[in-house]
Write a structure and sequence with these properties.
Blueprint (H helix, E strand, L loop, with lengths): L12 E2 L2 E2 L5 H17 L3 H15 L5 E3 L1 H7 L3 E6 L10 H13 L4 E6 L3 H13 L2 E7 H6 L1 H9 L3 E5 L6 H13 L5 E3 L10 H9 L1 H14 L5 E5 L4 H7 L9 E9 L10 H4 L1 E5 L2 E5 L24 H8 L3 E7 H15 L5 H14 L7 E6 L4 H10 L5
Parallel strand pairs: 4-14, 5-6, 5-8, 6-7, 9-10, 9-14, 10-13
Antiparallel strand pairs: 1-2, 3-4, 11-12
Helix pairs in contact: 2-4, 4-5, 4-9, 5-7, 9-11, 10-11, 14-15
Amino acid sequence: MTNFSEMPDKNGYFGEYGGQILPPELVTIMNEINDAYDKVIQMESFQKELQQLYADYVGRPSPLYFAKRLSNEIGGAKIFFKREDLNHTGAHKINHCLGEALLAKYMGKTKVLAETGAGQHGVALATACALVDIECEIHMGEIDIEKEHPNVTKMKILGCNLIPVSRGTRTLKDAVDSAFEEYLKDPVNYFYAIGSVVGPHPFPKMVRDFQSIVGKEAKEQILAKENRLPDVLVACVGGGSNAMGLFTAFLDDESVKMIGVEPAGKGLETAEHAATLTLGTKGGLHGFKCYILQDQQGQPLPVYSIASGLDYPGVGPQHCYLKDIKRVVYETIDDKECLDAFMLTSRLEGIIPALESSHAIAYAMKLAKNMSKEKIILVNLSGRGDKDADFVANYLSLNI
């Protein structure tokens, strides 16, 4: 049996995925970050400050909610939501942003840089940087700026320097490229706060660890409510941080099936999707090895999702490993299924989910129909849909 707690190895690999595909000078910088992280994570003062912020600032633990009306409407298994949408800033992203901002401050960095897609990571990081008093710069694709205007406004109010990215597809992958180029100008004094379980070692490990609080809480909560573990966990997967946050605490529980849900976009038969684990091949991206949607020359393909936080051509290295050993199954949901879940959840539960999270809810709905009523599906509702409401209303031509 795999000992997941020992991963990654000392070089940052989960099986054959991860590592540091970087110039030697950047490897040195990344190793310094790793050493600093390994040191502070053991410090009682760091842990005490972080846990206090989770409780009093973020509002943790986030509730575990039985979606009774949705479950009754679908029939079959009971569907529970882990309510990360109720966190301060509206998503799971604040969990690792606080940790990264505190680490950057501890290391004496002068500026924190990041990319953002849907804007949730950008808002969370701008929030954390305001709290710990460190300069923040966020790079965001122009298409995502148009789609996620409420989050753009929040980032500017919080005091971050927002850099529009006009290159390429003008979405998440290009925002990563832009932010990383800025980081390379002064990696000694800048800190690149990667927004998911991606990038070179130690970032997949660090973000996983900070996000693991989601699964730890969910495990305690479902045992308290139902006196047993769930049958299935479901979470959306772009880079993969919210899914790893939920899955990590359950990896050794063989009775619990885990499903990561990727965006099929306008169809897997088209070029307009971001189903990396479903259709990707092994390659390198942004300093690490993973499955990637790439052309014959090894260049990342343009990707698409109606959910801006999922349109990334790669995926976290631990997800790649979990796919290969078949511990997690990766499925897909298309735009229509996502929007149907968005609207149904809103109108049956009074909860407007993020489009990213709606992919997970949509798959849980499909799954629940064919399961008995005593079965339990636990969905990570990773973010709220305030940021998506105007876009969805216009997209569906709702009379609002």
